TrEMBL record:
Belongs to the claudin family. It is found in: Cell junction, Tight junction; Cell membrane. GO terms for cellular component: bicellular tight junction; plasma membrane. Keywords: Cell junction, Cell membrane, Membrane, Tight junction, Transmembrane, Transmembrane helix. PROSITE patterns: CLAUDIN, PROKAR_LIPOPROTEIN. It is a multi-pass membrane protein. The keyword Transmembrane applies. One of its GO terms (molecular function) is structural molecule activity. This is Claudin.
Length: 220
């Protein structure tokens, strides 16, 4: 029963981590970190991501333009690019490491201590990946709120608002954190190999003693 529960926890943790990693990759490349709606022209909407800006017009459709220079970007976008790349890489590495530590795989069955360490390392990688995904998304959201309520900007000037990619990034970060926690709980519930062998030897000794007590004494 304990083994089934542990395998289920490992599988759910890995699924949450996989979901978070996919969402973090989408967040990195989606051009919807910020949205801008023009009051003067309601048929034209602007979106901005880490890599390009897009304008959506009802007659023309979507037109996107990549940023020309990395150094010309604002500081939050430059650092967000780096952190999102780091989050994607750590998440992928965590999937590889924790995948080899699953109990459902028949690889290195006798090395349970190694599998436990792989699960713990995978959980740490997922935690780090989740944090590095939440930091840039929350930072851009904070600056967007500050600019939206900035009283020094005239009211006639359009303001940027939250884009769909921010909510995708928050979902990715929390999924990675939850997946890492589940893998850690599954690793902590794994019995030590020394303890399991000790219990097996003790059970064998008890069985031998019971057989000796039941056997009749030989006649002299």
């Amino acid at each position: 029963m304990a083994l089934v529960f542990r395998i289920a926890m490992q599988s759910i943790g890995l699924l949450f981590s996989l979901l978070g990693w996919v969402l973090s990759c989408l967040t990195n490349y989606l051009p919807h970190w910020k949205n801008l709606n023009l009051d003067l022209n309601e048929m034209e909407n602007w979106t901005m991501g880490l890599w390009k800006t897009c304008v959506i017009q009802e007659e023309v459709g979507r037109q996107c333009k990549d940023f020309d220079s990395f150094l010309a970007l604002p500081a939050e976008l430059r650092i967000s690019r780096i952190l999102m790349f780091l989050s994607n890489g750590l998440g992928f590495l965590g999937l590889l490491v924790s995948g080899f530590g699953l109990d459902c795989l028949r690889i290195a069955d006798r090395q349970q201590d190694l599998k436990k360490r792989l699960l713990i390392l995978g959980g740490v990688l997922f935690w780090t990946s989740g944090v590095t995904a939440l930091v840039p998304v929350s930072w851009v959201a904070y600056l967007t709120v500050q600019e939206f309520w900035d009283e020094t900007i005239p009211e006639i000037v359009p303001r940027w608002e939250f884009g769909e990619a921010l909510f995708t990034g928050w979902s990715a970060g929390f999924s990675l954190l939850l997946g890492g926690c589940l893998l850690h709980c599954a690793a902590c519930s794994t019995p030590a190999p020394g303890a399991s062998s000790h219990y097996a030897v003790a059970e064998m000794q008890d069985h031998c003693q019971q057989l000796e007590m039941k056997s009749p004494n030989p006649k002299v």
